[in-house]
Every structure is written in C-alpha cells, then in structure tokens.
Amino acid sequence: MGIVTRGLALFCAVLGVAAVTSAQTVDFAVSGNSTIRGWTCEVSGTAEVTAGGGAAAAGFSSGVQGVTLTVPVAEFTCPNEEMTEHLMEAMRPDEFGEITFQMDGYEVTSNGATATGSLTILETTETVAVPMTLTESGTGAAIEGEVRLDMTDYGVEPPTVMLGMLRVRPQITIEFGGIVAP
Questions:
Q1: What is the pTM assigned to this prediction?
Q2: By C-alpha distance, which of 168, 2, 3, 178 is closest to 99?
Q3: Distance between CA 22 and CA 159 in Å, rounded?
Q4: Quick check: 8 pLDDT over 60?
Q5: The domain 3-180 belongs to what CATH superfamily?
Q6: Domain spans of the chain?
Q7: Looking at residue 91, what is its pLDDT?
C-alpha cells in the first residue's frame, strides 16, 4: 500500500488507537492522476493516542479519548526523483513541515469506525470524516482506511510540467494502515 494513500487517510489511523506512551507508526500512500499517468507517493507518520472515554471498538475495549496523527512532509517518497521534487515544491516542507490530523470524535461502525477531526495541510484546516476498518491484532488493532480529498481545498497547487502538457489532477486518495496498540 502506498504511503500517500495510507497517509492522508491519515486520520483514520488515529482513531483506532488505544492509550500509548510513545508514538506509533502508520504508513500512508497518496495517489492521484495526471493528464498522462497515475502516481503514488508514500510516507510513514506517527499516531499518538489517549485511551478511554469513548465507545469500545475492535482492539480498544476502553475506547479512544484522543488521537493526533503527524506526517512529516519532507519524508514523502515518489517513484522517481523528479516527482518527489514536484511534490516538495507543492507542499513547501521548509514552511509547513507536517500534515496533522486531530481527532475530535468517532463513531463505531460494523467493521471499524469513522473518525471525525481537523486535517491541516499547509495553512488550511478542514474538518474531515475518515472511515477505517479495525481488526483485533494482539494487544491492539490493525487499522486500514482511505479518504479522498481535493488538494486545492487545502491550498496545494497541483503541479504542472512540460509547458502545461502534464497536469496533476487535484483529486487525491490517501490510504493508510498499520498496527496500533495501547
């Protein structure tokens, strides 16, 4: 699963975590299309979770009180160096080093949960709902999900190259996954 796809879904992963004293890794894959081909870039982020205070979910019997997901922008990797450079130009990691998701709440579903919270990319924060599956795994849960976004809603200018012949479309899919435990 690609990092970006695993990633912007970023948020979903955050919900499915029990109390932790240290950050846990969640992988993200972000994918999209251009006028010429599809693309996927990947990154690993961290999830910090506070247990308790919410409805029980698979792998988290005491529920989840809070979740913060952090994705380091400069660590994204794409299939080739040129694509990574275009991504870095669009995301400006020197100014905006992280993408964050702060969970405000969640609802348990038949196969997992839907987390609602604030996603911040560049200078823009929007409320998003992120559906995810939760499967008990050891002392926690395996999480997996995806969310679709329009990058321009967050102030990200889709890259254009080759004198405008190649244009990245603004719609992206963020997939994420990992194993999180209390």
A1: 0.82
A2: 3
A3: 36
A4: no
A5: Lipid/polyisoprenoid-binding, YceI-like (2.40.128.110)
A6: 3-180
A7: 93
